[in-house]
Amino acid sequence: MVNGVFVGHYHYSLFAIYYSLFTIHYFTIYDLRFTIYPMIYLDNNATTRVAPEVIAAMQPYLADYYGNPSSAHSLGREMKLAVERAREQVAKVLGAADPNEIVFTSCGSESDNWAIRGVLEENPNKKHIVTTQVEHEAVRNVCKRLEHQGYEVTWLSVDKNGELDLDEVRTSLRDDTALVSVMLANNETGVLFPIAEVGRIVHEHSNAIFHVDGVQAVGKIPIELKSTEVDLFALSGHKLHAPQGVGAMYVKSEVRLAPFIIGGSQESGRRAGTSAVPNIVALGAACALAANSEGHETIRTLRDRLEDEILARIPNTCLNGIADRNKRLPNTSNISFEHVEGENILRHLNAEGICVSTGSACHSTTHESSPTLQAMNVPYVAAQGSIRFSLGRYNTPEEIEYTLKVLPGIIEQLVEMSPYAKGARAL
Ligand code: PLP
Fold this sequence. Notes:
Structural class: alpha/beta
Bound molecules: pyridoxal-5'-phosphate
Strand content: 5-15%
């Protein structure tokens, strides 16, 4: 730390040279430091840095344009046009048949909550929901709450690789199943569920609505909703380089969904509240950026290198999630370091300027293993030492090499100190 500020993983001495060469004001050097010594950010499943292109696109809507898109005057019309442009950009990245199938929301959690509650409100006589044991809290906790309110929930299991059993999906369906909610990509392991097949099964064997939490997938893998049986699909801006506070939901044209927020007629009466135009424009720009697959291969290559090297060079490590990389997000590796606390690894990496996460960010303050790893039957000693590395478009080969340079030493030191490892050695 210098003046209470993190300096980064590069040499302090280099910083000292800068500091003495340029006798400039602290705040100037503070800015300089951030340009030259950025953190190594390997936590892109938690949130992403807002892309410069996205900031440039939204900036005029913060500074110059200020009309309400519902107003009939020219300033209002200009804002409305911007919202509709963004709707087309979101529709394009999702492969939707019609931009009107896109509704803007405030975040992925709102989209997920709305999907579940909106379907149930439309189907008051159906009291059964099907979902998986590995959904994000935005789905899992809503379903748990509904269970307490009298709904019956079937929690589909996963195997040790984190994969679904499609027969179990089929046999779970009933006449009174209102909704099936299955994520596309798991936030902790990156494991992909075959939503096209799940959708076919749902619609062949029931009248249930099929909702997909696609929050982690958008911008990372190609999506073509119009050729699937997906009825509802949630996405979140901050996972794909738009700012926090904006999301969207795809609502297939023929699907009826009760509104979640009631008020004005914004979003064709489907979601009231004055549109957050700068954020919506940002989401559109982020989707346009994501639609361009340039850079995706680099992320995959860097992830593969990081994963291969950790598993090969560090003893007692194992991958959480299916080994077949075609069945996982290209940016995610969830690796367990046995006998070591994930929290300790996280703190030591952070001290080296590297940001990772212990499973889902929501678990980083609790000590129980994540429900996803529990559902996969990952043993406690491994689950406690699990680290999620999630890469993004700004990661460089140098950052991955630096991570590979410091990580083995950190693990060696922590294993040396670990009472669990001592116990295991004594056996
Ligand atoms: N669904 C998944 C799979 C997620 O990973 C997240 C966030 O981590 C959410 C939903 C919630 O999205 P938001 O943070 O935009 O509310």
